[in-house]
Amino acid sequence: MNTASTTRHRRGKLPLVVALSLALVMAPVLLPSALAYTHHGARWQGTNISWAEGGGDFSGNVGSALGPAASSWNPNTDVTLTKSTVASLTAVTYYSATDGLNGKAQWTTSNGYFTGCYASVNRSNVASWAVNKIRAVWTHEFGHCLGLGHTTSIAIMTGSGTNVQYDAYGIYTPQTDDRNGINARY
Ligand SMILES: [Zn+2]
How far is the CA of 102 from the centre of ligand 1 (A)? Predict the structure, then answer.
């Protein structure tokens, strides 16, 4: 019994030591979560970025969602996306019943700068969705075409393979973490 009591006493002094250790251990853990956004290595030269509608079928909600998705990167960020007739950043649609993707982004670079990027949505998966949900897909792919990778935050750039950001959290537009990622890059 005395041994147990002594042990408790010792433990009574431990929290200070434990608290200090935790602070040290948690510091490197907390920093990345505050900077959850990632970059994939490329960016555009300059911050006025033109985009254009490329090939594909833009009928219905897929087309309605596109313009608002591109513009949703403009508020509170250092970039300004403007629609043009021809641009190196191009929105396209495709149809694949087998690739399992809602959308994708494909780009080319030179010296760390984009020379071109396609933001694509897969009509096979998304054409029947509500406009806000398709807008989330366009916005996500545009995010890749601005240089963002996936984030562990609940944001528009939350990793692929899940619809969680729009289905579970109602996120259709860039969030603080997404905007921080843009502003750290431009
Ligand atoms: Zn993605």
Answer: 10
Q: Please tell me the distance from the alpha carbon of residue 122 to that of residue 23, in angstroms, as a whole number.
A: 46
The residues whose Cβ lies within 5 A of ligand 1, an ion, are 160
Question: How many angstroms is it from 151 CA to the middle of ligand 1?
Answer: 9
**What is the whole-number distance in angstroms between the Cα of residue 85 and the centre of ligand 1?**
25
CB–CB of 90/52 below 8 Å? yes
- 113: domain CATH number is 3.40.390.10
Residue 26 or residue 58, greater confidence: 58
pTM over cut 0.85: no
State pLDDT tens for residues 167-179: 778 899 999 999 9
Indicate if 21 and 59 belong to the same structural domain.
no
**Domain count of the fold of the chain:** 2
